[in-house]
């Protein structure tokens, strides 16, 4: 097996015995690996915070990094499950593509999607795929409601132009984000993909922070005369339905 596979095997052994922990000898016997390899892997895993080592008891246990990763994965699964009824209801109400996202380090991540089989335009919104924040409806929601540090990271890099409509100037993006906060929703009018318009809205957690965003995507020609107020309100209502507050 590769070093990576061996490291995961050791993590699995240790976590299985999290209550009591495992000693070096126990890990060595369970893994069947050379002593030097186990010693090196344990040193790396503890340095990364994946495992902890108590020098008094000489016992290894799962570390805080594992707990943080597990909490993040679990919370995102919960978000998807909790929001699914609202996403389906929005799709049923308006008949277009509906997506759900969370915010990563400096990009959005699709975690759910409902799309009619006969939707005429190809979307690149596969679950698990990341997307830029500055030129998407959900991305603007995350940027508008996220911490200052998130905006600083995004604005510290060039804002890539995906189409002629993409906002590429920092001041223009900041003004756009202020509008998003004031009106409660974001619009992507062919800013990342020609021919597509998206409406994004925030999903709030119990303490009022934005934990996710949903969007409705439709061919732009549908909105040639502007997005109807009824459509905007329907998106907002379903985002509120998905929210926990």
Commentary on this structure:
The protein is of the alpha+beta class. 45% of the residues lie in helices and 20% in strands. The protein folds into two domains: 3-62, Arc Repressor Mutant, subunit A (Orthogonal Bundle), CATH 1.10.10.10; 71-242, Beta-Lactamase (2-Layer Sandwich), CATH 3.30.450.40. The protein has a six-stranded antiparallel beta sheet, sandwiched between helices. Strands 1-3-2 form a three-stranded antiparallel beta sheet. A hairpin with a 6-residue loop joins strand 7 and strand 8 (196-204). Helix 1 packs across helix 3 (35-47), helix 4 packs antiparallel against helix 8 and helix 5 (137-145) packs across helix 7. It is elongated and about 70 Å long.
Task: Compose a concise summary of this entry.
It contains eight helices and nine strands. Helix content is 45%, strand content 20%.
What is the tally of beta strands?
9
Strand order of the largest sheet: 6-5-4-9-8-7
Anisotropy-based shape = elongated
Radius of gyration: 23 Å
Q: Using the coordinates above, name the CATH class of the largest domain.
A: Alpha Beta
Distance between the termini: 47 Å
The helicity comes to 40-55%
**Count of discrete alpha- or pi-helical segments spanning 4 or more residues:** 8
